[in-house]
């Protein structure tokens, strides 16, 4: 959110009185007229692209554990670890994609090349599903079978990680490119930009819901070739829609050609090299200017004072001619402090991401053991239960945007009703509650298994309705409306302008690290609780497992995380006045 104020200076006008958008050009490199470019028209194309891409992505990710434990015959713990590792990688690759976009290719080209790679990865994934299953009964011990099995597994995982790399370039750039279609210096477009993040997530979740509803059913009841092939077709459609809007988009003019990553890196290097340097009079003056100017732009005031050493002036013969790596401008130091100030908020959201990872792994396996019949002969695919997250989001976002925000705005006077950090914290609290609910429901499921004498019959459906799981999914969805959207807006808004793709990739990396942490926790707990031949918390027979204890552990970690988050959020100073 930029400063949404009618007092903002007018945008430059052409001689004919046409309103121009500063710093943006059209597809031919010409300055753009506000009324003829960008805005909701362009954003609609980009939201459409995101919907098609998310349909494809969740068609793979949501039911991946079923493919690994089914056709590939992996154990529950191994499959969960592989899902978390892949999901983590998929959430970390945006750091690479954002770097390439912000430093070299630009967002449009990065999206274009990532889309082509996406189609390739999904196409190969479909081919891997065409190959004979590792579990086919004939000649399983032959050399040909072993070679076929090895080739299929290699092709599957190579294809899977190609998809992860492709979405790493696609994900942060599409959202940042969409937000770029609104000029934060224009009061009307500034308000639209804030709503853009809400409606972006609305489209995102609606598409995910359709994917869960349709593709999971196809994968569980027909075959995996269709289940992987349809996402490939969807990604081709996303590429077509993206190119259709090419002439309406606003593109960054890149008036500042310096590499934003190098600019920030120079600050840290210069501060380290000047650590023991006695500043000259000029340097003292420069540091004093920084103390006056930098607080106006935010950050945790001077808890990053060591970076002021980057302002120190020393003689040029001390380090040679590499001037940029021993002395930086005030604006460079400001950018570095802004980025560094995001780290505590980033770190205190990691447990939220660990909790988030459970919806596509253990929640799905729980649903598989429960009564899922709606009508005789028709059962809900367990992965489709994740659609309740999307339903909750699709229902709650309009309520939040059209009812809660205006009411909150009337009381607080803030354009967004509540601050971004308040929004994030609210979602984290709801996430904690969802883990408590999940632990209670799982304890009840285990009780039903014992009372029914089905503890050692994991293939028999328990006489307990799968609808017991719905509350925890709904709580996940509502918490996402607060935390997910809040994180997206926060990391887009609070980074320097040249690093906005990187800002969104930092948001995504929370969930990458969270998935890795989840995988690490599972591995450690699996090893610790299976000693002496006893059943682990994650035993293949879930009737003898203790997922309820795992959920209580996550709830406890969430309490600690929330306390730390509130401490850092309270002392955070926003980088832009309107975000307060």
What does this structure look like?
With 580 residues, this protein is mainly alpha-helical. The chain folds into two domains: 220 residues, Growth Hormone, Chain: A, CATH 1.20.1250.20; 227 residues, Up-down Bundle (Growth Hormone, Chain: A), CATH 1.20.1250.20. It contains 18 helices and seven strands. A three-stranded antiparallel sheet has the order 2-1-3, with no helix packed on it. It has a two-stranded parallel ribbon with strand order 4-7. Helix 3 crosses helix 5, helix 6 packs antiparallel against helix 14 and helix 16 runs antiparallel to helix 17. The longest helix has 37 residues. It is globular, with a radius of gyration of 26 Å. The termini are close together. About 7% of the residues have low confidence. It is found in: Membrane. It is a multi-pass membrane protein. Its main location: membrane. Pfam families: PTR2 (PF00854).
CATH superfamily of the largest domain: MFS general substrate transporter like domains
* Number of helices, counting only DSSP H or I runs of 4 residues or more: 18
Calculate Rg over CA atoms: 26 Å
Largest sheet: 3 strands, antiparallel
Average pLDDT taken over every residue: 80
Helix fraction, binned, reads 55-70%
CATH architecture annotation of the largest domain: Up-down Bundle
Give the CA-based shape: globular
CATH topology title of the largest domain: Growth Hormone, Chain: A
Order of helices and strands: EEHHHHHHHEHHHHHHEEEHHEHHH
Instruction: Domain count, please report it.
Output: 2
* CATH class membership of the largest domain: Mainly Alpha
Strand fraction band?
under 5%
Task: Determine the N-to-C terminus distance.
Answer: 10 Å
Low-confidence stretches: 5-15, 280-287, 292-302, 313-321
Structural class, from secondary structure content?
Answer: mainly alpha
Strand order of the main beta sheet, please? Answer: 2-1-3
- The total strand number stands at 7
